[in-house]
């Protein structure tokens, strides 16, 4: 018997990415409401309660409302919004991040998919905080660049529709200038930091892909860990994880640049440790697709784990 999957919000950017990854699979039955029924609360409630697993690709408040409609205790949920990423009773859907991550997701009825920026940041920061190389009260800075699809339909219109009143000619711009980006709560909480990182995101004129960078003055860290120490902690954290690759120090040292579209169209993430010759400064960089491991790919990975399937099925 195949599992029945209902995607609520299947016409949004993330929903479409998930549908594409599930479309050819014979081990699942994927259900999406017709356009005429998408705003019919009774129809949505029936679909939500009739599924084995629901994937919510909705704005925060709509996700909360959808969860409130689920009365069937057997229905399991993956939510792709920011609504539940630090909520009690929800499992954070980044299986590689903690030693028990896979088991927690496999046994959970409620899984919150991580944000794309948070995925890159946490992949770099969490192992170092856990190992004590970055103290919990250290002033952490993170920045990077994302393809404009990360902003959803509204930002895609800004960058693509020349006849739209919101169309912009910009090539690269900073945003979240009030230092209140919606991913910050999960970045702080899931990294184990006492304070939110100073986060400086930017978006550029390419559709998908992203770089997330955590620069560190290693001389300011307790004990002054070397680039090799930092690399060893990160590499050990993801050993044997098929969707996270850690580049070797020699590979990183040989690179003159790293492209934000390096993993566009992929469901993987690659981590780099770049260092200066003195070894007292490093640039830790995560490359991923904001719609892949940063959104749709991560949701499908979590779905597979929850259903007891190999995590890379369909990826």
List keywords for this structure.
single chain; 315 residues; alpha/beta; seven-stranded mixed sheet; six-stranded parallel sheet; 10 helices
Can you offer a commentary on this structure?
Helices cover 32% and strands 21% of the residues. With 315 residues, the chain is α/β, with parallel strands linked by helices. It has a 7-stranded mixed β-sheet with strand order 8-9-7-10-13-12-11. Strands 2-1-3-4-6-5 form a 6-stranded parallel β-sheet, with helices on both faces. α1 packs across α10 (292-306) and α5 (116-130) packs across α8 (227-237). The chain is globular. The two termini are 22 Å apart.
Main beta sheet: 7 strands, mixed
Report the β-strand fraction as a percent range: 15-25%
The radius of gyration over CA amounts to 20 Å
Q: If strands are numbered along the chain, what order do they take across the biggest sheet?
A: 8-9-7-10-13-12-11
Question: What ranges have pLDDT less than 50 throughout 5 or more consecutive residues?
Answer: none
- By secondary-structure content and strand pairing, the structural class works out as alpha/beta
Instruction: Count every beta strand, where a strand is a DSSP E run of 2 or more residues.
Output: 13
Between the first and last Cα atoms, what is the distance in angstroms?
22 Å
